[in-house]
Amino acid sequence: MDKASQRVENLHDSYGRLASKLRISITDRCNFRCNFCMPSQPVWLPHDEILTFEEIVRTARVLSQMGIDRIRLSGGEPLVRKDVEGLVSMLSRIDGIKSIGMTTNGSLLAAKASALKRAGLSSVTISLHSLKPERFDKITGTNGIFDKITEGIEAARSLDFKPLKINCVITRGENDDEIIDFARFAHETGVTVRFIEYMPFDGTKLWDAHRVITGEEIVDKINKIYPVAKIERETGSTAIEYNFEDGSEGGIATITSMSAPFCGDCDRIRITADGKVVPCLFSRDEYDIKSKLRAGASDEELSAYIRSVYFRKSPGVETMIKNKANLEHVRPMHTIGG
Asked: Three-state SS for 31?
């Protein structure tokens, strides 16, 4: 049987949205305590509740048969998981997978970057919420680790990970005075800085909609100093991307999850570290696949289950906002990785 005939109908929900991207949290543990992400006293999952590499790879292989062709690994902090490069290598050998990316806080990246590149990791996104070391420590709950992040960024640049992106959650009154500094960083280094609107997840910082700086505000501010031009948005992308008009290799992007979400063509499916399928980041709906994996379910049974729960996917945060739904206490961000 050829590979094309092995593929089954693509994964879709009741609104006709097709899934092509898998985001999988490989651990809930993190060496940071970011105030918008982590509760003050996180309760870690027992190790035996975390999906094994073999379970992750099997799930990804089943999903690849339903049209998933891009994988992003997240956490917690994925680089605290032992032998993560081994997992990347296993995933890279799955037929139909075009790319494997990772979102990381960057603190362990300098030591791991070469091994990850050899294993097949193609892109890296590094979270960096301030360019001021003392403020960085305050936001992330760390102490004197800022230089490790910059070392990780330089290691990723030297190894030519493409794309290399920097994620920055912007919060009014906390780091919004650094918007131009981050734009300058993108302009001078050639990386893309993605400005993320503050979202209602269960960190130690209480959710307050007034602290949201919209993507439109961010771009307007940058445009006065570094003129930018919007790039045509790729279907399913969560970001609006911009090039610098002067031809700099860097760029900026906004992720407008609160002010202008792109739920209508969302193409993601998420799996938590303990094996819960999460069709929509902002919905509290979760569906257990780990128990089926460990009970000996066949690939066909796994496929049918995933298809049935993904079909129930929420219309998204855009509808929730319009309906004035309570967006507080969705889940701690460290359990799903965004």
From this structure: coil
158 within 8 A of 173, measured Cβ to Cβ? no
pTM for this one?
0.91
Determine the CATH number of domain 3-335.
Answer: 3.20.20.70
Which backbone phi and psi does 337 adopt, to 5 degrees?
A: 80, 10
Spatial separation of the C-alpha atoms in residues 88 and 243, rounded to whole Å: 31
State how far the Cα of 105 lies from the Cα of 85, in Å rounded to an integer: 16
Which residues in the chain belong to E strands, given as ranges? 21-25, 70-74, 99-104, 123-127, 164-170, 192-197, 228-230, 240-244, 251-255, 268-271, 276-278, 287-288
Give phi and psi for 9, each to the nearest 5. Answer: -60, 140
- Summary mean pLDDT of the chain: 91
126: which strand partners? 104, 166
Whether 329 contacts 202, CB under 8 Å: yes
Dihedral angle, C-alpha 294, 85, 137, 32, nearest 10 °? 10
Is the pLDDT reported for residue 332 higher than 80? Answer: no
Task: For strands 268-271 and 99-104, give the pairing.
Answer: unpaired
Q: How far apart are CA 95 and CA 257, in angstroms?
A: 32
